[in-house]
Description:
Elements: E1 3-9, H1 21-29, H2 34-38, E2 42-46, H3 60-72, E3 76-81, H4 83-88, H5 96-99, E4 103-105, E5 114-121, E6 124-130, H6 131-134, E7 138-144, E8 146-148, E9 152-154, H7 156-161, H8 167-174, E10 180-182, H9 192-196, E11 202-204, E12 210-212, H10 222-226, E13 232-234, H11 241-254, E14 262-268, E15 290-294, H12 297-307, H13 330-335, H14 340-348, E16 356-360
Parallel strand pairs: 1-16, 2-3, 2-7, 3-4, 7-14
Antiparallel strand pairs: 1-15, 5-6, 8-9, 10-13, 11-12, 14-15
Helix pairs in contact: 1-3, 11-14, 12-14
This protein binds iron/sulfur cluster (SF4) (2 copies).
Amino acid sequence: MSATVYFASVAFDRIDPDATLPARFVRVLERYPLTDMVKGRRVAVKMHLGGNLGYSTIPPLFVRLLIQKLKDAGGEVFVTDVPWATTEAVARGYTAEVLGAPILPATGRADRYFYRVPVEYKSLREIQVAGEIRDSEVLIDLSHVKGHGACGYGGACKNLAMGCVTAATRSQIHALQGGLTWQEELCTHCESCLEACRYGANGFDEQGTYRIDYEACHYCQHCANACPEGAIAIDAEAFADFQEGMALSTRAVLSSFEPGRVLFINFLLHMTYLCDCWGLTTPALLPDIGLVVSDDIVAIEQASLDLIRVEDLIWQGLPKGKRIGSEGHLFQRIHGKDPFVQVRALERYGLGTREYKLVEVQ
Ligand code: SF4
Ligand code: SF4
């Protein structure tokens, strides 16, 4: 059975506030039985509040409209993110007064308020799920769509997997990044591998140890092929470990919510090269598209990626001289990681379906 994904476009046909995205957003929300969903319940709105000089997170107006709707429906609403982002949120205009709801650190001020969910995947043994999320009865996963160096794409999955857990779990998921091995005893330090890397992703540290920047690596294998000594090897399975870890973390975060108590909202506005956690904003990679809403995380991620077309790339959104690949989704060409890996993993874990019906709301 396919899932429904509601779509509101930024395209407009007349000069009228009612024909613009905020008004459409409200009409999309009205498609859901919000009173049944939230009345008398504690509702967490998880968003990425950004940091430092970033200005491309979801505009406060949309968050305020959402919170008003949830409060009108009888929910006890709060906004939440990782602790450091909540303390910096005011710089992007997110305050309790503006949004209409308090802003709480998801894992507590000291990042020590969490519940352990056991998992077994490579070096990952548990997910430390944020206490404020676990204590809530309804979750709104409010995400800004953008590129991501480690998984190609950041949206609904990334917002939960990396934003509803402790810093310790985040670093354990990052520690899954890998796929290249180097054998020191074979290496002659000829540097052919460095010349072969068109992405500047490899190098030697001061001790002469080979290092890979996995955020920049495209897994193109040129370094391995260029090595005359066979010192570099690629483990194709390990490329996707980070994305698998994100899917597992997402499953752990969602595991405490009853069916019908989670809503996913993806904003496809000012989509940038890198994640909001970099604390900066670069020019948009793509023209603004609009927003999508669904109660199915797999469907909303698939639909968001499907709305992004290679031919719409705005080169100004990439660093000058940045080269991109020629295969796959635009985010795969830019970051070298197939963004559908995590979507397929979410589906495999039973969190939804990639089959969806896109319903446009005017
Ligand atoms: S796999 Fe490709 S991108 Fe990654 S370090 Fe090797 S040459 Fe560079
Ligand atoms: S190409 Fe091979 S031998 Fe040469 S520096 Fe790189 S890893 Fe070492």
